[in-house]
Amino acid sequence: MIGWNLALLVGGSLVFAAGCLVPNRWLPAKLPNDKLMHFAAFAVLGLLALGQAQGYRQAAAWLVGLTLAGAAIECLQQLVPDRGFSWRDIAANTAGVAFAGVAAQLYMILGMI
């Protein structure tokens, strides 16, 4: 049986990837700040991914994988009309993943006190 955490991770990843890989004209006109959405999406995906990890190696693999997936999405956006590659989006994605890693570490440290 698939756990809720994994289902949310897969579903959230698919929704975010779909939103990034459609032409801009298909998206709602009023969206929050693009970089904030990238940061928040990857922070949430990072926390969900860390919920799947068993040990530090798996946690690191999940975080590296999410970072690479964020870069891959930006590369694929070059193939989509109205979209393009953005280093700042990659930075926002990476910052979200890093935030998830730091937040998880702090949670573990504070939970041990």
Account of the 3D structure:
The chain has 113 residues and is an all-alpha fold. The chain has a domain at 38-113. Helix content is 73%, strand content 0%. It has helices at residues 4-20, 34-50, 56-77, 87-112. Helix 1 packs antiparallel against helix 2 (34-50), helix 2 (34-50) runs antiparallel to helix 3 and helix 2 (34-50) crosses helix 4 (87-112). The termini are far apart. The mean pLDDT is 92.
Summarize the structure.
The protein is an all-alpha fold and 113 residues long.
What coarse outline follows from CA principal-axis ratios? elongated
Supply the number of helical segments.
4
User: Which residues form runs of ≥5 with pLDDT under 50?
Assistant: none
Which percent range fits the helix content?
over 70%
Task: Spell the H/E element sequence.
Answer: HHHH
Strand content: under 5%
Mean of pLDDT: 92
Keywords:
113 residues, mainly alpha, 4 helices
Task: Walk me through the topology.
Blueprint: H1 4-20, H2 34-50, H3 56-77, H4 87-112
Helix pairs in contact: 1-2, 2-3, 2-4, 3-4
